[in-house]
Amino acid sequence: MEDKVVHGQPDLLTDFDRQRVAADDLRTEELLINMGPQHPSTHGVLRLMLRTDGELVLEAIPHIGYLHRCAEKIGENVTPVQFVPYTDRLDYLAGMNNNHGYSLAIEKLCGLEVPERARYIRVLMCELNRIASHLVSFGCYGLDMGAFTPFLYAFREREYILDLFEATCGQRLTYNYLSIGGVTQDLPGGFADKLAHFLDYFEPKIDEYNNLLSYNYIFVKRTAGVGVVSAADALAYGLTGPCLRASGVKWDLRRCVPYEIYDRFEFDIPIGIAGGAIGVPREVVVGDSWSRYFVRMQEMKQSVRILRQALQQLPAGEFRAKVPAALKVPAGEVYLEVEGARGQLGYLIVGDGKKTPRRVKIRGPSFCNLSIATHVCRRVLIADVAAILGSIDVVMGEVDR
Amino acid sequence: MAKGWLHNRFEENFVVTSVDWALNWARTNSIWPMTFGLACCAIEMMAAGAGRFDLDRFGAGAFRATPRQSDLMIVAGTVTFKMASRIRRLFHQMAEPRYVMAMGACTCGGGPYFKYGYHVVKGVELVVPVDVYIPGCPPRPESLIEGLLRLQDKMRQETIAKKS
Q1: Closest Cα of chain B to A101: distance in Å?
Q2: Do residues B70 and B64 touch, judged by C-beta distance below 8 A?
Q3: DSSP state of A210
Q4: A189 pLDDT higher than 90
Q5: Interface-testing mutation among B32, B35, B38, B74, with chain A (most A C-beta atoms within 10 A)
Q6: How many domains does chain A fold into?
Q7: Which of A16, A269, B58, B138 allows an S-S link to B44, with CB 3.0 to 4.6 Å?
Q8: Would you state the pLDDT for residue B14?
Q9: How far apart are CA A17 and CA A23, in angstroms?
Q10: pLDDT score for A182
Q11: What pLDDT digit, counting tens, does each position of A259-308 carry?
Q12: Cα A192 to Cα A168: distance, rounded to the nearest angstrom
């Protein structure tokens, strides 16, 4: 038997149980189970190898690489402008955020100035996409926990956002809109009105979702206190985004290391709060699955706030800087991180004066967030593995790249 | 060609048109797809299953989590060499008659990863037989519905008659 308490996880066996198990020789055999790559709650093609003892998971080893699409190698073979569409397909739920990070990194390396209007459009798109991504996460987490209705609600609202995207750039999922030097085209006529209408419609919906799922007794029982990640562990494993904030660390790149124009907006950074506070069920522990889920719900509200301010301040003017047709990546290297929907998305680009970069390295937040899975999936029930994985909210396109 | 348990059970010169019609009517209107999302296209597949597009209107909204209960495999997303053997295995686990839809450019022929994707299978038809190809990167939910209707057309042509 392993230690009684492993990494802060409560041991489900009492001493009495142990004595009985030893006395009556009731020990069960360990069993290796493959969870995935085709499994509805692994969110794609993640394969987890579970070492189980009865209903208890002793160890969960993630196997990745089922969606390795050679993104970094492609980045070295195509020009930066050509690579932007590939960044869409890393974290395909938040394509705009990925475009943004890569464009910013290339602009920093090439010394391009982005017009003011383009910067605001970028913020508008990134925040909208953050909401869309969190909506999918919310809906699918409901599915994982056995609730089908939230999924339909989430996708209903998401379609509004996708309609806005489609009017702007003609695509629903892979946008290629935030391009190097600005955005590829100006906002369509009537966009501001439509967006304002959407925000008025959407903001009260978040409370509806909370009443529907967040405070649902069964849901709270399934997620609260499950998969607790302490702040120290979260930092040690390199967790970022909602996963880090749910552990009580107030760290958001938009606020702490402002890039683009995020220093001009007012918004809060939601963090995980212990149970008993207003709007938090009693069973909740800081850093558990429920906190990770709830941070996303609160972030949607903050995104709405940012969107309102950005819409108000949206200036007129050019939407794209003049980018030379044959853009050469100058010698040197740049590393830049942005706050994607899942955490810090980093791009390392090394150029040597040719049309294509010499090296493109991508730090996918999902990849780092997934590394905690082995750590927290120790001595938990098999059903809890789905709860933990869903709350980490990985996108395999970004994990395998 | 999909083979059901009635296939080739009758002697020659048997008239089976009404049986055919009844079987095909049942099959075409209750295609149960497998929840088999690989990559980006899976999100559009989910959107197609959600309220706005509602695959249930065509009897194909009951996504099953296991191949044993499903009739249709929608290969939604990039197929890598590591995943290809699993896809083949899942395909063989499905009961006959079974159908495969290749959704998206990647499964149709490599898509954007055709040239530099050293780890991407250039089309899922190299692994499993494909009935309907749906182009797009990713295809819109309407495209998926169109593909489903084409598959239903194909299923209506099937017969259990023995071909001599």
Answers
A1: 19
A2: yes
A3: I
A4: no
A5: B38
A6: 2
A7: B138
A8: 74
A9: 10
A10: 87
A11: 888 889 888 999 888 877 888 888 888 889 999 999 999 999 999 999 99
A12: 11
Interface of B with A (CB under 8 A): 34-40, 42-44, 46-47, 50-52, 65, 67, 77-78, 80, 82-83, 86, 90, 112-113, 115-120, 137-138, 140
Q: Quote the pTM value.
A: 0.89
What interface predicted TM-score (ipTM) does this complex get? 0.86
pLDDT in tens, A3-46: 444 444 456 667 777 777 777 766 677 888 888 788 777 777 88
Range of the domain at A270: 71-400
Q: Can you read off the two tokens belonging to residue B74?
A: 């929608």
pLDDT of residue A9: 47
User: A227 with A141, same domain?
Assistant: yes
Residue A229 belongs to domain with CATH number = 1.10.645.10
Strand partners, B75: B102
A200 in the same domain as A135? yes
C-alpha span between A311 and B150 (Å, rounded): 44
- pLDDT on residue B35: 81
Q: Are residues A21 and A111 in the same domain?
A: no
Q: Which tokens sit at A51?
A: 């070492």
DSSP conformation letters of A271-314: ----TTSTTS-TT--TTSHHHHHHHHHHHHHHHHHHHHHHHHH-
Distance from CA of A353 to the nearest CA of B (A): 22
Which pLDDT belongs to residue A12? 65
Average pLDDT over chain A, rounded to an integer = 87
**Which region, left, alpha or beta, applies to residue A43 given φ > 0 means left and ψ of -120 to 50 means alpha?**
left
Domains of chain B and CATH, by start: 32-156 (3.40.50.12280)
Residues A187 and A56 in one domain: no
Residues of B whose CB is below 8 A from A397: 39-40
